[in-house]
Design goal:
The chain is of the alpha/beta class and 343 residues long. It has 16 helices and eleven strands. α3 packs across α4, α7 (115-125) packs across α11 (177-186) and α13 packs parallel to α15. It binds adenosine-5'-diphosphate (ADP) and magnesium ion.
């Protein structure tokens, strides 16, 4: 597949400067965004005829070499999907086994709904081999019972063999290493080793965040990266692009950022986890107070969207929204000192 930045939109047949601008303003600034659109949507967005829309889409598809693959090829690709357990079996079941590689998973919810806790927990769990996770589930307190050093050492060695690296883009300065240590220790992992495998970068503004995601490519090609976290995906964009006038620019940048993340997910068979806030002010932009920031750009780009909310006592609810192949549903979980657990 050729790089989508290779040619400019207005070099596509049928796309003049004006149309390119319209598309750009609507948040469709890349060939990939055009190639994956349908004609009627493009027609509406860019205010062009249906025939032109079809021509443009086909040209974008040609340019990107997007074509058919067989069902079996798709199946093969699906078979290499890895799943990172969340710490709560109920949430894992909701997600079909855990957070999937090769796609973007979005956790959205209010402040304090445990988005960061989930992100940190996944950064720890990404480093646990599936075999070890399975053994854990069969006998959760085996370690405590025979508690001798050799068994602990063995667990740690297994984890080291697997050691999936993590890239963590922290935009709100909420990556707390002590919390990661606590979660790792609770799992019988060596906290130092777990922290050594997490490459953390603090993003100071949205352009910096975009750059960091692009640089994650270098880390991923040197280390075995199984998970990329962006916590929060939208906060910097929200403060950098204030007001309606800048909405189109913001959406275009976000779209570009999501494509970088999706490309990392595909290239490295990595899971991408992003967090997102919900609108604090009902009616401000979309009307629904539980609408995630970023609108259609993010929802179209994430395969899994999970809405987190607080429930009675210290319980929390995860709701799967709009998954292409799993039923909608809810799972209850809790956060305690050990991390994310079943309620
Ligand atoms: N060490 C801990 N022990 C128990 N609960 C914790 C611990 N650390 C965080 N929490 C819980 O997680 C909540 C914060 O969640 P967080 O993931 O930071 O929210 P968000 O990122 O969605 O704003 C706290 O209100 C608390 O309930
Ligand atoms: Mg947070």
């Amino acid at each position: 597949m050729s790089d989508e930045q290779d040619i400019a939109l207005d070099e596509l047949p049928g796309v003049g400067k004006k149309t390119a601008e319209k598309l750009h303003d609507a948040g469709y600034g890349s060939l990939m965004a055009i190639a994956t659109m349908n004609a009627s949507k493009l027609q509406e967005t860019a205010d062009i005829g249906e025939k032109t829309a079809t021509t443009i889409i086909n040209a974008a598809r040609d340019e990107l070499d997007i074509g058919f693959s067989t069902g079996s090829e798709k199946m093969e690709q699906r078979e290499s999907v890895r799943r990172i357990p969340t710490g709560s079996e109920e949430v894992d079941d909701l997600l079909g086994g855990g957070v999937e590689s090769q796609c973007i998973t979005e956790f959205y919810g209010e402040f304090g709904s445990a988005k960061t806790q989930m992100a940190l927990q996944l950064a720890v769990n990404a480093q646990v081999s599936p075999e070890e996770a399975a053994a854990d589930q069969q006998s959760p307190d085996e370690d405590e019972e025979d508690g001798d050093e050799s068994s602990t050492a063995e667990t740690t060695a297994n984890a080291a063999d697997y050691s999936k690296g993590v890239v963590f883009i922290d935009t709100e300065d909420t990556f707390i290493p002590e919390r990661v240590e606590q979660m790792a220790e609770s799992r019988g992992l060596d906290p130092e080793e777990v922290l050594d495998n997490i490459f953390v970068a603090r993003a100071y503004n949205s352009d910096h965040q975009i750059l960091l995601a692009e640089e994650a490519q270098d880390i991923a090609s040197e280390h075995d990266i199984g998970l990329i976290v962006v916590d929060s995906l939208t906060a910097q964009f929200r403060s950098d692009y204030v007001g309606r006038g800048q909405l189109a620019d913001r959406q275009q940048k976000l779209n570009q950022h999501m494509h970088t993340l999706q490309r990392l997910a595909n290239t490295y068979n990595a899971a991408v986890v992003v967090t997102n806030q919900v609108m604090a002010n009902p009616g401000q932009l979309f009307g629904d107070p539980t609408t995630a920031i970023g609108g259609h750009i993010i929802s179209h780009n994430s395969a899994f969207r999970i809405y987190l909310r607080k429930s009675k006592k210290d319980k929390r609810i995860a709701r799967l929204v709009d998954c292409p192949y799993l039923p909608e549903g809810e799972a209850v979980f809790k956060v305690d000192e050990t991390g994310i657990i079943d309620a």
